[in-house]
Amino acid sequence: METKLLRIAELARSYPEMQFTSLAHLLDEASLKQCHQELPDNKATGIMGVTKEEYGEELNNNVENLVRRMKKKSYRPQPARRTYIDKAGSKKKRPLGIPEHEDKIVQRGLAKILTSIYESDFLDCSFGFRPKRNCHDALKILNVYIERRRTNYIVDVDIKGFFDNVDHKWMMAFLEHRIKDPSILRLIARFLKAGYMEETKLYKESSGTPQGGVVSPILANIYLHYVLDLWFERKVRKECKGQAYLVRYADDFVCCFQYQQDAYKFFEGLKQRLAKFNLEVAEDKTNIISFGRFAEKKCRQNGNRKPSTFNFLGFTHYCGQSRKGKFRVKRKTDNKKMRAKLRQTKIWLKENRTKGAEFIMDKIRRSLIGYYNYYGITDNSPAVDLFRDNIRTLLFKWLNRRSQKKSFTWEKFVLFLKKFPLPRPTVKVSIYQLRDHINYIL
Hints:
It is an enzyme of class 2 (transferase). Keywords: Nucleotidyltransferase, RNA-directed DNA polymerase, Transferase. The protein has a four-stranded mixed sheet, with no helix packed on it. A four-stranded antiparallel sheet has the order 6-7-3-8, sandwiched between helices. A three-stranded antiparallel sheet has the order 9-10-11. The protein is globular, with a radius of gyration of 24 Å. It is built from 16 helices and eleven strands. By secondary structure, it is an alpha+beta fold. The two termini are about 35 Å apart. Helix 2 (about 30-40) packs across helix 5.
């Protein structure tokens, strides 16, 4: 399958108007077995409760039966199991749809096919859930646009309930630009219409693609590629009097403008553009702010102390200065994200405080390393140090509640940390160290 996908990717790149008519044969037994192996272990199960390990016990028979049903057009995805997770900085819950393992296998195969076709179509402004691109790359290119280009205004936009409001008819229309294989289109349509189960009740919807599905990220990228990226590149930038740039990661995006009138014109046009595709802007979370090398001067003229800030990908971006006194964009961890992570750690410690010290400290150590790998970027060391200090305080509090008798004094706790040391944060990512594909964009 990999060789065939490379050939499809080559054709898609060489012939941007080409439509693919024969793709379903790629979902054969060998490729679906490979998709099964690639799926992560110990993940939450769907409504039938079948795990990867259980499905793999009769893998040959299960996949053979799956392929047979797909060829007979009788395969229908099960509804996703609806669950909810905490939303950072809010009392609201974020809905997730967890598919059955067999459906995850098919979605994995579909995601590979769609990625091979659309990766060459996607514009350079898109970074979310794409090969060899990540959140740090999006932050790096945004930093270049603000520091090295003529950015004076930022439009920080939030799309209201994007994954719940993806229009199925528009989604299928976008896919038909490149795909003419009815079997593949039928499969995707069935996944979109499968609905979800919540408290034994089935819900069918005519819009939305559930977060949590393996194929959802690539479908979201395709939808916003046509709704937002192409529109911004082919219409908005051409009509702007000054420079304009877009940086998008999944449904989160930030736009940079040279002139204020271009920023406001874009925002009004964006509301109309999204409404056409049954989406809307969350106006309470959307801001147009003065930001850049002249923002501080404008701020003083308007009688304000400091320029406004904006949040993107878990970081608060603010105007700062280098050691030489020149303008620099700086970043620190978004307070909402930090509080949410600390709250999550507190709950885990409360529930697991009676377990062995080695188990608890190994979990905390791995959690901290993961946190450092993402938030350990240029200028964010003070915020990461603060997070580590808060984790240490939580440990002291909850390890002292393992019984009615107090377990530690602070002096004993310090000795405990010498035996089980917390990893120290370091700068893992330099915002100014650009990767090859970012240099290509610039």
